[in-house]
From TrEMBL:
<keyword id="KW-0963">Cytoplasm</keyword>
<keyword id="KW-0547">Nucleotide-binding</keyword>
<keyword id="KW-0028">Amino-acid biosynthesis</keyword>
<keyword id="KW-0418">Kinase</keyword>
<feature type="binding site">
    <location>
        <position position="143"/>
    </location>
    <ligand>
        <name>substrate</name>
    </ligand>
</feature>
<dbReference type="InterPro" id="IPR001048">
    <property type="entry name" value="Asp/Glu/Uridylate_kinase"/>
</dbReference>
<feature type="binding site">
    <location>
        <begin position="28"/>
        <end position="29"/>
    </location>
    <ligand>
        <name>substrate</name>
    </ligand>
</feature>
<feature type="domain" description="Aspartate/glutamate/uridylate kinase">
    <location>
        <begin position="6"/>
        <end position="220"/>
    </location>
</feature>
<dbReference type="GO" id="GO:0042450">
    <property type="term" value="P:L-arginine biosynthetic process via ornithine"/>
</dbReference>
<feature type="site" description="Transition state stabilizer">
    <location>
        <position position="202"/>
    </location>
</feature>
<feature type="binding site">
    <location>
        <position position="50"/>
    </location>
    <ligand>
        <name>substrate</name>
    </ligand>
</feature>
<dbReference type="InterPro" id="IPR037528">
    <property type="entry name" value="ArgB"/>
</dbReference>
<keyword id="KW-0067">ATP-binding</keyword>
<comment type="similarity">
    <text>Belongs to the acetylglutamate kinase family. ArgB subfamily.</text>
</comment>
<comment type="function">
    <text>Catalyzes the ATP-dependent phosphorylation of N-acetyl-L-glutamate.</text>
</comment>
<protein>
    <recommendedName>
        <fullName>Acetylglutamate kinase</fullName>
        <ecNumber>2.7.2.8</ecNumber>
    </recommendedName>
</protein>
<dbReference type="Pfam" id="PF00696">
    <property type="entry name" value="AA_kinase"/>
</dbReference>
Amino acid sequence: MEELGEAFFDSLLELKKEEYQIVFVHGGGPAINSMLELYNIPHEFVNGLRKTTPEVLEVAEMVLSGQSNRKLTSMIELHGLRGFGVNGSDAGLLKAEFINQDELGLVGEITAVNQSVLEMLFNEDLIPVITPIGAAEGGTKLNINADYAAAAVANAIKAEHCIFVTDVKGIFIDGNLSPQLDADEIEQHINDKKITGGMIPKVTSALNLISKGLNSVMIVSGKEKFYEEGIWFGTNVSAKKEVLT
């Protein structure tokens, strides 16, 4: 988040001028790791997801809502846009259920998005900035992977575009930026371990959205422009690669 650059916000301003409604769903993994280590709280990842005990969840929510959300909302405001921070567990915004309580603890997947909350903010010309904490039946809070949460929100509001922001220009294969990848190529690159780590939730979320009919999913850098005069920069994820004739 600290690496979000001026050029990134220039692209946001351009999208806003073109009357796009913008929603942020943010993470905060490195900051959570640092705080867990500071408090000597054991933590681990299982299949790329943070195993979440009650102690881990308390720290994660404190960092995400108290630090990351506040910081991102302030950055949006400083660049001439109007942000509004909200915890996903507020007003039933992100309804969730356990993925596998035995293996992952308090980790969930989103089952529904309360669109009325987002519509209320849109009507006030505000940009929702969502912390990915969901609520299960009975009010139990669950930790949600930010990429999966973003995909669920994009699908719920039938977004025209979904953008996954990272610290590189897109997906690099063998040292080269790939401007476009389709589902078969992504599966092969994951099997070949050319797509690894934190990029896997991004590409799997992207493919899930494409399968549900979303027009455009981009993986872009937060350090530079990703959109200018109708042109997107980064890696476009598609069901099948377009053939130019």
